[in-house]
Amino acid sequence: MRPDRGQISILQWLSDCSSDCSSDSLPGSHEMHDSRLPIARARITPAGLMLLAITSVGWGFNWPATKFLIGELPPLTLRGLSGVVGALLLAALALARRQSLQVPRAIWPQLVLAATLNVTGWMVLMGLALLWLPASEAALIAYTMPVWASLLAWPILGERPTLLRTLALVMAFAGLASIMGGNGISDSVAKLPGIIMALLGAFGFAVGTVLSKRWPIHLPPIPGAACQVGLGCLPVAIIGLVETSHWDAVTPLGWVLLVYSVVGQFCIAYVAWFAALARLPASVAAIGTMAVPVIGVVTSAIALHEPLGAGQIAALMFTLAGVVLATRS
């Protein structure tokens, strides 16, 4: 299928925005386009694969790191402040690379809309979801986002559903059913608020991403990411001021993970992602980021002693199957 200007290729979409559904970090930069950037070569390079691995590990490990930190800091304070600091670091990196942070007046409406859907909504809803859900299950629900985007491409961009996209939706619902039924009905009811919030965050992010394909934001990736992350996280940080934060109670491990959450996910992983896209075919980059929920599930089981039984494994397999089908439709 060769989409025209008003359509979206799900494979290209996933390669553009694997960040954001891929990590509990804020996926802001994927919607930024710059016609001056070179198109990814079709040749697979070892450096590209290494950079992709750095990205996947960085975003995957951030799920259990954030879950641990929410036990020490309120969710809005944590998500908002880490995002603002991450945006400032990205802005500093852009200036160091002699890239302008100036946003043309014409694209401010698109930028604000994308920041609201893809950053503010994502950070708030996913942060609150982690109050009810294990990090592994939140990561899996977040990774259903490509499936919702493939469906939204029909009403917004005119792409009719295909058999593969229908099967992808079935796989996504099967994954959700595995999560909800993995530990009994009573446990599922207790997790329901978290499941709803995670689904709303994934769906809202999918809406923002498809809209950004309809009305793209023409900014270089790193300055665009800095602007979108900053715009989206600043109101979250301001609202977080009403929360009671006990910074003196943060453990040494908590401070280490807080630094990692800011520097690792916003700077190292983002820069590695952009560099990987320049060295790998889009299909390889998109499929490679499917390691993110796998890493999130496994590291959460190891570091946080979260359950890793038949229900979680089934949810992981169904979710990945749905993403594969969505990207191939």
SS elements, strand count: 0
The major sheet is characterized as:
none
Helix segment count? 13
Low-confidence stretches: 1-23, 25-31, 35-42
How would you spell out the order of helices and strands?
HHHHHHHHHHHHH
Kindly report the average pLDDT value. 80
Number of domains: 1
Query: What is the approximate shape?
Result: globular
| CA gyration radius, whole angstroms | 18 Å
Q: Helix/strand-derived class?
A: mainly alpha
Strand content: under 5%
Helix content: over 70%
Kindly, what is the distance between the CA atoms of the first and last residues, rounded to a whole number of angstroms? 8 Å
In words, what does this structure look like?
The chain has 329 residues and is mainly α. The chain has one domain (10-29, 40-328). The chain is built from 13 helices and no strands. It has helices at 10-22, 46-70, 75-96, 108-129, 135-142, 145-157, 163-181, 185-214, 221-239, 252-277, 282-288, 291-303, 310-328. α3 crosses α4 (108-129), α3 (75-96) packs across α10 and α6 runs parallel beside α13 (310-328). The protein is globular, with a radius of gyration of 18 Å. Residues 1-23, 25-31 and 35-42 have low confidence and may be disordered.
What descriptive keywords fit this protein?
329 residues; mainly alpha; 13 helices; 0% strand; globular; disordered N terminus
